Give the backbone structure.
Amino acid sequence: MISVNEFTEKELYNLVNEGYYLYENTKNTYLKLCRSINNPINQLKLPITFSHSILLSKAIAVGIKYSTMKNKLRSPEQKDFISVLLILLKSVSLNLSKLIDFNEFDDAAYHEILTTLNLFNSDKLRVEELKSKINMLSETDYKLHLKISDLLIKTFGEISEVNVSHSTRPGKAILVSGNNFFDLLKILEKTKNENIDVYTHSNLLIVHALSNFKKYTNLRGHYGNQTENCILDFATFPGSILLTKNLRANREFFYRGRLFSTDYIVQSGIIKIENDDFSELIKSAKTAKGFSKGKQKTDTLLGYDETKTADELNNIVENLNAGKIKKLYIVGINAHLTAQKIYFDEFFNNLKEDEFAISFSYSSSKKNVLVLNMGDYVPLVTRLLHKFFNNYNVSDDKIVFFFATCDVMTISSIILLKNLGAKNIYMTQCLPTIISPNVFEFFKKTYRIFNTTTPLNDLSKIRD
């Protein structure tokens, strides 16, 4: 949570303080249990003593000193593998929290997280042990994706192909942003008899393709075209805004009075919603300006027809086996960058007749491109690819993967594919905030990943 949000010193202090309180309670419980059953006590020493009088800057300085001491004992290769391991830990933790939203838990995934964290208590970290943990976490992440996708359809109904409106109409409005489907459902239920339109934002786009959400006439459409363009979208939205759990976004403080959140930790200037009481959020929407005129925008084609898509994927497998398709390009979810859109427009336009592409993001009118827009919802992409590669070998030279995004789940997915034998993987450049340039170069070299350059250059390289 600290790594993906911005906190003031006071907010960060309160977060650390609460964490330390939980740590002390857990330690005391452990000691009491050990004594009650005469069990040997195995207690780690905490290098930092936290107190109410401590300065946060001093705590950070001590932490840096301790971290530096540990790093001196590690080789450059160990440090790089540790960096990759931490990325995998973040991805698994994020997906486990999404699973918990469905009131489900995965003991095996939780155990993997804990045993991996416990590695860092050792001064002797073997490279082979780090590699093994990385591989196990990527497989755990994959299983979580499949569980989440199954629960999504079981809970919110079957998926279908729909046109999603990006237009707005005059009236009061609420914007729901983030990843939490349950928070959105509660808002729709609370406002179904109110004269308030509800718009989705960010990764909630996919709900428009799920049958259980279609019954709500107050669900008007999706606001904004870019999933992470929060500053512009929030500033221009003339109603109240709900930031749901698991939201990773830029949050500015000049929306005071209009930003609400159900999240565990809420920043200054954001009103925390307790016990599903959305009355203040609805009141804020009613008193806000609302849309005076509305604006017409182009719709987005979203989702897929289950039966039709299964037939199309089976047909691709048959054509691969018959040699009619020489190369199959699989393009991952949308990065929502103009440069990426231009890249794949040119890429698809230069496909040969004996080449085919499955695109989970960028659209194309070409007959040899199958577009399956998943609204950037990775578990559904994983679900479809899982079915496809049950019928075709992922390690075949004809298969080429393209990742248009770079985040913790991208790194996890690439490692899984390489472990399954995938030979050809191309990806966009990672931002330094996601993975440092040195570690990114190490990652590419270790797992034999190619950076995208230009469409013609990459196609030429693949064909050669």
